């Protein structure tokens, strides 16, 4: 777990304008910067970035957050990866309680990663230059209906038909980084002695593979003359793991948001051709089966994923593997569907023959995950016999166990129960499903904490926007709020404890990250603050002092009324009444 102090220090060092500006063109507009929102399609800028708050906010779709949030939402990175990416940019090393690697070894690893990344970038530039003077490769791409514009967008290139063409790029052709990056192969004799080094990719159209930050981490090379293998991929390297990366995801991110879904295909050419034909939201796995990591990456980008497979047996097998990879991440607010084309078509050929509208119709009619799962487990089983129904249940069991407890799982359980002449409760008991839903009474949802109102809300809101004001909040003020609004006392205490833990360097952005999991009350408030114009801190201090004073006066008034109702029958009560009256007068004078 990354310490909160590190997150705070990181957000104090990075500039959100620089971070967002790497991906979104920004223009100065008053105190803030403006641009077109990257999270929804718009023609007029409604996306603002505040250098003061170190926060972004879109007035169109409501998206908002810190530099960390931006990388998570825009690049599809996980929280830890987003923090590491930002930290690397400002020369910080993310502490990890579980990381036992000595600092010197970690520094060596980071230097090696940078060297590999540099090697891949230089090789990519070389292949792109070679394409311009390679008529066979140009003719091949034109024959597939691709334009120069689309080739440039995906950085397509050509590896010359030579054993060591990269020697012209790397005069020191024997450096280890070329082997570790998978660009060259060392040939050894039977005794293990080194004999010869040569380029891995020769006479192929080159498809650079980028990670979510746009860095080239690998290549796919396609033959043009019917040779084998048809596609040659980079091997696994420190930069490139096939089970974690998706071809075209970097290029497709904005299109995925605009389309509302990601289309997963089976190959490089499908992705590039579909982008040419009006479907730039396509991505592809990299010569390997779809993995849960692939699914997780896609569901960070969009709430709907559609897998497109050929209708032959190989396509069905690939679809089954994709289904199994999806199950752990299936949920009630995500849609996963499966599209099967006729056996004679892949997406590229289907669109060219049938047209974009026909392919769009196929996408709209794709089979939902629940339907495909049932179709797979039923297979050829004879549902008219007990044996056939038992076989269906046997095949369904591991799949339903892989699904998280949810309304979707309950619906599939009900459907399975219907076709196997069982009850949902019997299915859950037979399969020993975690957190059964059908056979137990569902507990009522916990009541949500109400968003604060009135003076108490004003104080909490000011503290979130300007954590430095925490120094102005004494114990009397905390007791006053707790007395007047007991349901908000915990919220205020949580906020004040966080601010005190963060110390003098507390800022709006770092506090937001601290409160990320705190609940709806804070999230609504954060969105409101993000949309506000900047205020002078001196004016904010006055507003806070006034609100605190009024809160204390109200608390004193309530206690005075309570004392008065006792008729002040003893000296202790009378003394307390006098003390409170004097305290109230002092508060009124400010």
Topology:
Layout: H1 4-13, H2 16-21, E1 27-29, E2 32-35, E3 47-50, E4 55-58, E5 64-65, H3 67-75, H4 79-89, H5 103-132, H6 135-143, H7 148-153, E6 157-159, H8 176-180, E7 184-188, E8 194-199, E9 204-210, E10 216-222, E11 231-233, H9 249-259, E12 262-265, H10 268-276, E13 282-284, H11 292-301, E14 304-310, H12 313-326, E15 335-341, H13 347-354, H14 356-364, E16 367-368, H15 369-378, H16 386-402, H17 407-419, H18 424-431, H19 454-465, H20 475-484, H21 486-502, H22 508-514, H23 520-531, H24 537-564, H25 571-589
Helix pairs in contact: 1-22, 3-4, 11-12, 13-14, 15-16, 16-17, 17-18, 19-21, 19-24, 20-21, 20-24, 24-25
Poorly predicted ranges: 440-453
Number of helices: 25
Task: Tell me which CATH architecture of the largest domain applies here.
Answer: Alpha-Beta Complex
Distance between the termini: 45 Å
Strand order of the largest sheet: 1-2-3-4-5
- The fourth-level CATH homologous superfamily of the largest domain is DNA primase, catalytic core, N-terminal domain
Here the CATH topology of the largest domain equals DNA primase DNAg catalytic core, N-terminal domain
Share of β-strand residues: 5-15%
């Amino acid at each position: 777990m990354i310490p909160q102090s590190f997150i705070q220090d990181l957000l104090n060092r990075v500039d959100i304008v620089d971070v967002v500006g790497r991906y979104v063109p920004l223009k100065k507009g008053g105190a803030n910067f403006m641009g077109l929102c990257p999270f929804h399609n718009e023609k007029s800028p409604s996306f603002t970035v505040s250098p003061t708050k170190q926060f972004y906010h879109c007035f169109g779709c409501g998206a908002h957050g810190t530099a960390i949030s931006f990388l998570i939402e825009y690049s599809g990175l996980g929280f830890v990866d987003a923090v590491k990416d930002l930290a690397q940019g400002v020369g910080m090393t993310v502490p990890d309680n579980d990381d036992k690697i000595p600092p010197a070894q970690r520094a060596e690893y980071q230097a090696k990663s940078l060297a590999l990344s540099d090697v891949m970038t230089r090789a990519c530039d070389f292949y792109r230059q070679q394409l311009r003077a390679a008529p066979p490769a140009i003719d091949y791409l034109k024959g597939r209906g691709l334009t120069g514009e689309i080739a440039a967008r995906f950085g397509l290139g050509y590896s010359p038909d030579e054993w060591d063409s990269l020697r012209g790029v790397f005069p020191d052709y024997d450096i280890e980084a070329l082997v570790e990056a998978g660009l060259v192969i060392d040939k050894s004799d039977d005794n293990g002695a080194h004999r010869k080094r040569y380029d891995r990719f020769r006479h192929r159209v080159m498809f650079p593979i980028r990670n979510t930050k746009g860095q080239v981490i690998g290549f796919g090379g396609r033959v043009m003359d019917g040779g084998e293998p048809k596609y040659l991929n980079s091997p696994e390297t420190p930069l490139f793991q096939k089970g974690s990366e998706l071809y075209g995801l970097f290029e497709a991110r904005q299109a995925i948001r605009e389309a509302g879904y990601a289309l997963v295909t089976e190959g490089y050419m499908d992705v590039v051709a579909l982008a040419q034909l009006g479907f730039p939201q396509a991505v592809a796995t990299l010569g390997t089966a779809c993995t849960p990591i692939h699914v997780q990456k896609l569901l960070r980008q969009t709430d709907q994923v559609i897998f497109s497979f050929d209708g032959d047996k190989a396509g069905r097998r690939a679809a089954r593997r994709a289904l199994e990879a999806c199950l752990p991440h299936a949920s009630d607010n995500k849609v996963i569907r499966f599209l099967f084309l006729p056996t004679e078509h892949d997406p590229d050929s289907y669109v060219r023959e049938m047209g974009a509208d026909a392919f769009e119709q196929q996408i709209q009619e794709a089979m939902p995950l629940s339907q495909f799962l049932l179709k797979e487990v039923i297979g050829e089983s004879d549902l008219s016999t007990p044996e056939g129904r038992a076989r269906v249940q046997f095949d369904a069991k591991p799949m339903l166990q892989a699904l998280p407890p949810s309304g979707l799982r309950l619906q599939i359980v009900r459907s399975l129960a219907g076709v196997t002449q069982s009850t949902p409760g019997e299915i859950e008991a037979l399969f020993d499903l975690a957190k059964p839903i059908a056979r137990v009474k569902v507990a009522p949802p916990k009541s949500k904490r109400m968003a604060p109102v009135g003076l108490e809300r004003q104080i909490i809101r000011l503290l979130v926007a300007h954590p430095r004001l925490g120094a102005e909040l004494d114990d009397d003020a905390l007791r006053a709020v707790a007395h007047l609004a007991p349901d908000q006392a915990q919220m205020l205490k949580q906020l004040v404890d966080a601010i005190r833990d963060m110390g003098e360097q507390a800022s709006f952005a770092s506090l937001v990250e601290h409160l990320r999991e705190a609940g709806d009350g804070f999230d609504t408030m954060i969105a409101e603050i993000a949309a506000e114009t900047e205020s002078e801190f001196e004016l904010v201090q006055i507003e806070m002092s006034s609100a605190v004073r009024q809160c204390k006066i109200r608390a004193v008034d309530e206690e005075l009324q309570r004392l008065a109702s006792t008729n002040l029958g003893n000296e202790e009560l009378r003394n307390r009444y006098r003390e409170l009256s004097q305290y109230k007068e002092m508060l009124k004078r400010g």
